[in-house]
Design brief:
- Helices cover 31% and strands 32% of the residues.
- The protein has five helices and seven strands; from the N terminus they run E-H-H-E-E-H-E-E-E-E-H-H.
- It has a seven-stranded mixed sheet with strand order 1-4-5-6-7-2-3.
- Strand 5 and strand 6 form a beta hairpin.
- The chain is globular, with a radius of gyration of 17 Å.
- The N terminus and C terminus are likely disordered.
């Protein structure tokens, strides 16, 4: 199991950093065979993914930012499993599902700041531990919490993500009951699997 500090670029191990970047059809700057092992390749995927996420949120998120750099890190059958008790609980499938999830997050949170992050990579399996500070859009309340994500990366793309929040109830309370009901009501009308519309607010 390899420990990786998120402040250190993972792509510095596994290929020659002096080589000029190249572009491939899948959007990756380096082909899979350039990495010395699966763990190095996985760390490079994670670096691209989190950089794309940061850029997407900074540019204004859904409706304002380009999702393509984010989407290229995802497998066509990617699944995001959000825990029961969260306002956005349920399964979000495919890149389109994750884009809808980001729209929900943008509606609930005014800001999302990663205070620290650590990654443990073992081949294609990843554990990411993040300390995050959220500010709710509807209430203005601030929540600082820990999230642990179990991730699977295969063929250079993220296939599955299972986040675990330290206190899901605190997330709903911070967002406020009206905001939570609105999100679940929109999900019921849309008729897609995430979030779970049967959860009480």
């Amino acid at each position: 199991m390899t420990q990786h500090d998120a402040n250190t670029p993972p792509y510095t191990s596994g290929h020659d950093a002096n080589m000029p970047p190249r572009t491939y059809e899948d959007g990756a700057s380096t082909p899979p065979y350039a990495y010395e092992d699966d763990s190095a390749r996985t760390r490079a995927v994670l670096e691209r993914f989190y950089e794309a996420e940061r850029a997407y949120v900074a540019a204004g998120g859904p409706g304002r930012a380009d999702f393509s750099a984010f989407a290229v890190c995802l497998a066509p059958d990617v699944v995001l499993h959000q825990s029961p008790g969260l306002p956005y609980a349920g399964e979000w499938r495919g890149p389109a599902g994750l884009e809808r999830f980001m729209a929900v997050m943008g509606g609930l949170w005014q800001s999302m700041e990663f205070l620290e992050q650590r990654q443990s990579v073992d081949g294609e399996e990843v554990v990411v531990t993040s300390r995050v500070r959220f500010t709710a859009r509807a209430t203005g309340r601030v929540l600082t919490t820990t999230i642990v994500q179990l991730m699977t990366v295969r063929d250079g793309r993220i296939r599955e993500v299972r986040p675990f929040y330290w206190d899901p109830t605190a997330v709903a309370e911070t967002c406020g009951p009206e905001a939570v009901r609105e999100i679940r009501g929109r999900a019921a009308v849309a008729g897609f699997s995430g979030p779970e519309v049967g959860h009480p607010a």
